[in-house]
Amino acid sequence: MNEFKFEEITIQQTQIHLCSYSDFDPSKYTDHLTLPEKKRLNSFKNIQRKREFVATRILRSKAIEMKDIHYDDCGAPYMDSKVFISISHTKNKAGLAINKHYKIGLDLESIRPNIKTIMHKFLSEKEKMHFDTENIVELCKVWSAKETLYKLAGRKKILFKSELLLNRASDNLWNGKIINSDHTISVQLNTFEHENIIITTNTEAIVKREKTTSQMLP
Fold it and tell me: In terms of domains, do 116 and 175 share one?
């Protein structure tokens, strides 16, 4: 498997398994796929999507066991095992996070200079004052952290600018909040740079707080 480079990063109770790869032929590695996954692989037309799919299953078979990865109604992956998982991809890299104790979110982001052109879509006015909007790496960290919050939210149709909020606890540890109509979710995130990509995951279980009636009034 010379086309692949594997790494493992441990953060608190989470193991992040990373796979960097070159432009490999996905059909050569179908032994790492279950029968339903082989059928799904054949449904993809895009070669990059096929490589992401196979690389993730290679990580799964190396780190856990050869069991199907399923997806819930929100598109979040899960397995019929006593573990929580999260999956992310960026250019020629796949990531699989595993935690035996609580729900996790994982996001991998390549550092991209054009992030400034879309920051108005995901930064609140308060966050614009709190974070360095001239720093490309920091903006990519904000985007990655909000993608992680989105995966932890458990629902679709979320406004990144007003319903996924961040503030900095320290350089790499950030506090995240997910705003829902009847409750909020708080969680601490670890976001850091590793080999020119940003990696973000939560370092603890999410904390759900119900809103009072007065808080829900317009």
Answer: yes
